[in-house]
């Protein structure tokens, strides 16, 4: 009973703080599960300030799940361009079509049904179920891990099987059954704005009197995360065709990162290559087949594009050639297609004269 009373005190403090300090975010003005789902998918791996602009773009272009389902994947990816982690957009589109075609456009209303949607995990299902349908299921995201690890002084790795279960159970014990959506948003907001990763505001924190990490000066050591990710290095060589009448070539990526997005013909190598190695590359030879060409390197320094599990080292090779056997496109039309941020940055810098 004593532990229950302490938990309720913590929960009520967080809710009171939230109601007085919550940010004015657009998805907090609705209980429409479609829009809450949209916001949660966008905010996975994305900062709120960046995600807000995309939320507005999507709700304006696809105001209902029917609009999203009726869009082409290309349209969805183009609107998502620049957000990264493009599987989120593909899963979003897939699930929208599932809701429309299999559920008659009715968004599932329970955690157990919501989590069946492609691209939806425990956190997203809990958020939608609690906010839209008042189901008392706790959210656990990076912010929640941080608040709980520090307050209770928990050193279990948050990315371990044991840790994931332990933190979920604690969050579930803290949730306020009468207003689960408000509590979930409160603890996430608190982690984002008070119990921050760096420079948390401990001096005026509502919980500092009983925070274990604060009392033991362990704030910077919690939460603990096991280092598991090994960064893979990849070397991309994009071949930018430059033909008369401002004609070039782009291709659709059929698998891997950036699947179904567009790019210039790509030659991936095991290490950085120079122009001699490029010219002797079998795939490069197949592209041009002894045609008269002029090759120039756009960027003398490698462009490094960092993703969570891989770093991509890129060179853009501009090849002047009179014609080719590949499908061509006007340079002015590339902007209509969804492209990775890496390619988009090149397009904004390169002048096709």
From TrEMBL:
UniProt cofactor note: Binds 1 [4Fe-4S] cluster.
GO biological process: base-excision repair; mismatch repair
Keywords, sorted A to Z: 4Fe-4S, DNA damage, DNA repair, Glycosidase, Hydrolase, Iron, Iron-sulfur, Metal-binding
Pfam families (alphabetical): HHH (PF00633), HhH-GPD (PF00730), NUDIX_4 (PF14815)
Positions of the HhH-GPD domain: 42-193
InterPro entries in alphabetical order: A/G_AdeGlyc_MutY, DNA_glycosylase, HhH-GPD_domain, HhH_base_excis_C, HhH_motif, MIG/MutY, MutY_C, NUDIX_hydrolase-like_dom_sf
Cofactors (names): [4Fe-4S] cluster
Function: Adenine glycosylase active on G-A mispairs. MutY also corrects error-prone DNA synthesis past GO lesions which are due to the oxidatively damaged form of guanine: 7,8-dihydro-8-oxoguanine (8-oxo-dGTP).
Protein name, per record: Adenine DNA glycosylase
Taxonomic source organism: Lutibacter oricola
